[in-house]
Write a structure and sequence with these properties.
Mean pLDDT: 85
Number of helices: 9
Number of domains: 2
Strand order of the largest sheet: 10-11-9-8-12
Shape: elongated
Largest sheet: 5 strands, antiparallel
Low-confidence stretches: 1-30, 215-221, 328-334
Oligomer: single chain
Number of strands: 12
CATH class of the largest domain: Alpha Beta
Length: 334
């Protein structure tokens, strides 16, 4: 009986050991993709990344990215209506004084902001007023361009100011070329096919910590960060991270276009890339475009959406915005 008890005890220990090993392997296999470490040394960014088992067997990746010292984009700042109005009318008064030196112009702030005109030759007043209206529109457009903003109307008929996504992506893609090339090496280098490249870019962007970036009043778009800012600050919200992914993709695969898909309080990306069976797509230009969720924190694979994203898209509550400059990029499409 003693010997039997000994065998049972050892057998039980062995079974327990096998169970613990199996449980450990299950936990490791189920470990979500995530950013394990981030360190910034000037313009050099250091990462340790845990990919899912489907990529590189889940082996931890350590790599560095170098940002260029110079940038044309600067820092994106939220639109401040009062400050913008002061700048606009200051420029307008200066331009009017140069264009019509014989006339006098005076800024009125009540009951609303306007410019009063006093012209010795009253016959020119209609002409001056017409010029002033056109100049105000021109100066406003210049101010928006300087701020990397554009006027937009969404699918629900609401107008407002949004980041100039096409221009930001176009300029960022060239500036972040070295970053895209470094990430391409994770995917296997030049021989990697477009889907493999996208998988690694998507994983990298998803694992950047999510941050809502909302202002105190919660105005949409107020917290947007440029792609370079997302990398430097190691944080971003839905449209910031989607634009970063689109910028990196533009550099590596300029022949495969993307579009920003906007749903209530969220944004994701569609790519003109063939989808595998079971992957979510959106019909654009009479073709199915592959949908991806760059936001995270869940590292959703290609063609898999969050429940809210799927619901809004299935019910038609979305709009799409171009990610490359066109003559009509101020209007959304469906």
């Amino acid at each position: 009986m003693a010997a039997g008890l000994s065998r049972n005890r050892h057998g039980g220990l062995a079974a327990l050991a096998l169970w613990l090993l199996a449980a450990l392997l299950t936990v490791q296999a189920a470990t979500p993709a995530r950013q394990l470490a981030f360190r910034r040394d000037g313009l050099t960014l250091h990462y340790r990344l845990q990919p899912p088992a489907a990529l590189a067997g889940g082996a931890i990746q350590s790599f560095s990215l170098a940002l260029p010292a110079q940038t044309l984009l600067g820092t994106f700042r939220p639109w401040q209506p009062d400050a913008a109005r002061r700048v606009l009318y200051t420029r307008l008064l200066q331009a009017a004084g140069k264009q019509w030196p014989e006339a006098r112009f005076h800024l009125q702030t009540t009951p609303e902001w306007s410019i009063a005109i006093h012209d010795p030759d009253g016959k020119r007043l209609p002409e001056i007023q017409s010029w002033l209206g056109a100049e105000q529109q021109r100066q406003f457009a210049t101010l928006l361009k300087e701020s990397y903003l554009q006027q937009q109307q969404d699918a629900w008929g609401q107008s407002g100011l949004l980041p100039d996504y096409p221009r930001i992506i176009e300029e960022s893609s060239s500036e972040l070329g070295d970053v895209a090339e470094a990430l391409l090496q994770l995917a296997g280098g030049e021989q990697a096919d477009p889907r493999t490249r996208l998988q690694w870019l998507l994983l990298f962007v998803q694992t950047i910590p999510y941050h809502a970036l909302q202002s105190a009043d919660g105005q949409r778009g107020s917290g947007f960060l440029l792609p370079r800012q997302v990398l430097l600050e190691n944080r971003g919200d839905c449209d910031s991270k989607s634009v970063l992914l689109a910028s990196l993709w533009r550099y590596l695969q300029p022949e495969i276009p993307t579009r920003l898909v906007v749903i209530p309080d969220h944004a994701l990306l569609a790519l003109a890339l063939p989808a595998a069976p079971g992957e979510e797509t959106l019909t654009l230009e009479a073709q199915p475009w592959l949908l991806v969720e760059p936001t995270g924190p869940s590292a959703l694979p290609l063609g898999q959406l969050g429940e809210e994203s799927r619901l809004f898209i299935k019910t038609g509550r979305y709009t799409t915005l171009p990610t490359q400059p066109t003559e009509t990029n101020s209007m959304p499409s469906r």
